[in-house]
Amino acid sequence: MRKMSGASVAMIMAIALYFTLFWGYEALRVLTSPTFGLDDVWRSQYVFGIGSYFKLEPMGLIKLAAFFGALKLVVALTCAIHLVDRLRNIAGGTANADVLEGGLILVVAISMAAAAPAAWTQNGDLLREQVLHLLLAAIAVALCLVERNYSRRAVNPALAAVLPRSEALVPLR
User: Fold this and answer.
1) Separation CA 166–CA 153 (nearest Å)
2) 19, CA 20 to 30 Å: which among 109, 139, 161, 169?
């Protein structure tokens, strides 16, 4: 069975690097700000939208902003751990995509929570940013699933004989 394509692995690593750098920066900016990022009106609109839905007072808004900042930091750290795991894989180990998939579940949850207020207020620019995050997470999960399918068939050839093969997964000879 042939190995996973190098381009697919590079795309997974690029998406993990994107979330590590950009969401890590955003999380550090939020968590080191005295107002937990609420002073940046553009980036904190989803906090205000969710806060108005739940009728949060100012202290509740600050706690909600800190919560989202902490979640973004967790996503950045899980993606960084996955990058280190991938680099270890290049050196001869095996990469475990479960860590990245857990981080991407958080990306989807945060992006959906941020996209809802943007859709309610008809803010297309903010909604577009959240859709980009959802799209990147979907691509990375799809590539991880394909990679898992390749590795499962490579480990258990009897399973490969029983499971039907799709045209996209059949290696060219």
Assistant:
1) 13
2) 169
Rounded Cα distance, 87 and 95, in Å: 8
Q: 17: how many CB neighbours lie within 10 A of its CB? A: 15
| Domain chopping of the chain, boundaries | 6-150
Q: 98-120 and 58-90 helices cross at what angle (nearest 10)? A: 150
- Both tokens of residue 159? 């399973």
**65 within 8 A of 37, measured Cβ to Cβ:** yes
| Of 67, 83, 77, residue with least CA distance to 13 | 83
Q: Kindly report, residue by residue over 4-24, the tens digit of the pLDDT.
A: 678 888 999 999 999 999 999
CA atoms of 9 and 134, how far apart (whole Å): 19
List, for residues 87-129, the tens digit of each pLDDT value: 988 777 677 888 999 999 999 999 999 898 888 888 888 889 9
Token pair 């955003």 in the structure block, residue? 26
Complete DSSP assignment for 125-141: HHHHHHHHHHHHHHHHH
Amino acid at 44: S
Give CA–CA dist 54/52, Å, rounded: 5
